[in-house]
Design goal:
With 155 residues, the protein is mostly helical. It has one domain. A two-stranded parallel ribbon has the order 1-2. Helix 4 runs parallel beside helix 7. It is globular.
């Protein structure tokens, strides 16, 4: 998966999660992440047929192993640039930044919900549903005041 580098060299060795105002993120990386520009190179993956515009977001292999049976189903579809979970948890780093146990909360609370949302996406997948998720993603990216209401409308 192509992405712009947003962290200092070696940052991936400490944690797979980005939490709050993570000091591993470069000053340019903060801007790239905030604007989601760091995701743009993934369009190359889409053009190569490795990813889709809409589909479950790829997960870190370590977390996939924790929920192997769930991911056996989820990994039957092509991963995407956006999905229900990426819309619901667009502020994941902030959510985890407020946690006393970010890793534990991610594994016991956020990840199971993301898995359910991925399964829901697979069950509801259609041209129209994908189109709706793309529109909601674009609205969210450009910071529309409708963002809060569209998040729940995607369900």
């Amino acid at each position: 998966m192509y992405k712009f580098r947003t962290m200092h060299d070696g940052a991936h060795t400490t944690s797979a999660l980005t939490i709050g105002a993570d000091p591993r993120i470069t000053w340019v990386g903060k801007y790239l992440r905030a604007t989601k520009i760091d995701e743009l190179p993934q369009l190359v993956n889409v053009l190569k047929g490795e990813m889709s515009l809409v589909g479950p977001r790829p997960e870190v292999p370590r977390y996939v192993e924790l929920f192997r049976s769930d991911y056996e189903y989820i990994l039957t579809v092509r991963p995407g640039l956006t999905d229900l979970a990426s819309l619901k948890y667009s502020d994941e780093a902030s959510i985890l930044g407020e946690s006393m146990n970010p890793e534990g909360d991610y594994v016991t609370r956020l990840l199971p919900d993301k898995i359910q949302l991925a399964k829901e996406y697979i069950q509801r997948s259609s041209f129209l549903f994908d189109g709706k998720l793309i529109v909601v993603t674009i609205i969210k990216l450009f910071g529309s005041s409708q963002t809060r209401s569209t998040k729940s409308e995607a369900h």
